[in-house]
UniProtKB/TrEMBL annotation, chains A, B:
PANTHER family, A to Z: PHOSPHOSERINE AMINOTRANSFERASE
Cofactor binding note: Binds 1 pyridoxal phosphate per subunit.
Signal sequence coordinates: none
HAMAP family from the UniProt entry: SerC_aminotrans_5
Subunit structure: Homodimer.
Gene coding for it: serC
Localization per Swiss-Prot or TrEMBL: Cytoplasm
Assigned protein family: Belongs to the class-V pyridoxal-phosphate-dependent aminotransferase family. SerC subfamily.
Name used for this protein in its record: Phosphoserine aminotransferase
Domain (Aminotransferase class V) ranges: 4-334
């Protein structure tokens, strides 16, 4: 058995892979592959409807919010958000907690004035800035709730009366959130929602249509809402597999249940990192992510050796991002505690053999 | 056996479905699903490289052109093309041969002056306008080579010295083309290239970087070229299945071979439409498409009855688009002559039983 700690695209449940493979040969007993059915067929319209309904149920999305399945990943949202929301000459506030947060701000600069309210860049983003001011005349405030590369996570929405937009690409569906606190939530699917190729957007309807900009149809949230995520051919298979994965999550007991598992998984690994004399965490303890656990060695020369052991133990994808180094264990919903234990065992084995 | 005449997403070869399903369970003997592998893995980088190389080989793409795999479908290209190419205050020329051609022009109006050089809208797009002038001061000329809804196709590029952009979503890879005649070719994959979720763009490098516009990174062709279609997480599975399909096409003998099959398939069906006293074609004979064959009945009241027979004979997806009515048989690369014969047989059976 392989233990896939990859940062994304990432592990999904084995049951989902089984169903997903079956539908490529015969979708829903239609005698057709899911890859060849019309996106306008009754069968696929039901897939989209069920996927939306599962998102609404699992995240308890209020009725005055729309749920959209788009393309282009979070990176496309970096541009679509200001294109839809910022009036000409308008201003938005961004919190800089990493490369992705910083890219979001950079793209927004094409559309207006961008204030960086705080940044932890000077420490290579090892912590989340606190106690910053969000200008009250900003059209919106944007932040990234989980910083995949640096292993930090923001569990509480920063307090502000300014409409708040959050990139939850790598922690959505991993813990309970109050959607009503936010005005727009977006996430590339390829962590806890599904495979690559689809992007989830949850947007409060009355946030839209106010910027006065002329927006190309394909980039206009209101057009996608009107068309029920079917303005043009959607990424059929990515939505279908997301539906299977959301069904799995619901059957597991929903987000409340998975959050408890995620807490235990993260604690198990962080405990070992603290206990083991060869390893140390890189993120500030109070900001540690439950999804991406970053750690290094006191003796960096040994890191290659541990990677070799990890490979022998079928621990996949634990090499750290080049900008942090060391290791990163991404422990998304579908990764079981067995895999955490396998990693912990390898860390202990390494310690034993180097005493 | 089902005969899938759907307009897109559409039939792909059964061999492709078999391989595509296998990789969802175990990709390339990695012990991992294609849905959970990192897009930065060596294995997936090889997929992208092979897909590009197959496109280049099959279409004989010159070296000074880039081949990109993007998201958002042809509809996103409607906006990206003028965003990248049209200077502020610039002008582009569009030929109006249907709803999609018209939408392309409409979206471009967000970025500059758009001249419609000719339109067949007054006849519900049953023919392709000829003998129009393309203004020499246009930055580019845009047309749609195959009009899926109306069953018309433009086989010869209109003569002009103005850089020419073509939407080949529904006929790319179905017939030989000379890429060097064009400056940019684009196509949603979900007809002859692969499943929904990926868009092919073939662009002459020296067309780019001249508009003087500030373009969000995700919409900038040059950024995608620099990143080898990996600026952000690509639609992994859609690219993978496209690769399988392009391998199949190459093994069939490439485009020269498939074009011969497509000619025979189309001729067989058009011949029956002409011969059979109950049916008649809707498109002008000289502009008839080889991919989407549109036809109606002399007695429209009988159309529902023929649809019922078609369903009984496992002929899927032949109901015409609402704006044309009647029937549409989409006869893409993967649809074999057996399926054409099954449709012809049903048409003859219908004729016999109504004599």
């Amino acid at each position: 058995m392989k233990h896939n700690f990859g940062a994304g695209p990432c592990i999904l449940p084995q049951e989902v892979f089984q169903e997903a493979a079956k539908a490529v040969l015969d979708f829903n007993n239609t005698g057709l592959s899911i890859l060849e059915i019309s996106h306008r067929s009754k069968e696929f319209e039901e897939v989209v409807a069920e996927t939306e309904s599962l998102v609404r149920e699992l995240l308890n999305v209020p009725e005055n919010y729309s749920v959209l399945f788009l393309q282009g990943g979070a990176s496309q949202q970096f541009a679509m958000i200001p294109m839809n929301l910022l009036p000409e000459g308008g201003k938005a506030a961004y919190l800089d907690t990493g490369v992705w947060a910083s890219k979001a701000a950079k793209e927004a600069k094409n559309f207006g004035q961008i204030d960086i309210v705080a940044s932890s860049k000077e420490s290579n983003y090892t912590y989340v800035p606190k106690g910053f001011d969000i200008p009250l005349d900003a059209t919106y405030f944007h932040y990234t709730s989980n910083n995949t590369i640096y292993g930090t996570e923001i569990f509480e929405k920063p307090q502000t009366t300014v409409p708040t937009i959050v990139d939850m690409s790598s922690d959505i569906l991993s813990r309970e959130i109050n959607v009503a606190e936010f005005d727009l939530i977006y996430a590339g699917a390829q962590k806890n929602m599904g495979p690559a190729g689809v992007t989830l957007v949850i947007v409060k309807n009355d946030l839209l249509g106010k910027s006065g900009r002329s927006i190309p149809t394909i980039f206009n949230y209101q057009e996608h809402i009107k068309a029920g995520s079917m303005y043009n051919t959607p990424p059929v298979y990515s939505i279908f597999v997301s539906m299977l994965n959301l069904r799995w999550l619901k059957a597991k007991g929903g987000i409340k249940a998975i959050e408890q598992e995620n807490i235990i998984k993260a604690r198990t690994l962080y405990d070992e990192i603290e206990r083991n004399t060869f390893f140390k965490g890189t993120a500030a303890v109070e900001d540690r992510s439950r999804m991406n656990i970053t750690f290094v060695m006191d003796t960096p020369e040994l890191e290659a050796e541990f990677l070799t052991l990890a490979k022998e133990r079928n621990l996949i994808g634990i090499k750290g991002h080049r900008s942090v180094g060391g290791f990163r264990a991404s422990v998304y919903n579908a990764l079981g505690i067995t895999s955490i234990n396998a990693l912990v065992d390898a860390m202990r084995e390494f310690e034993e053999s180097h005493k």
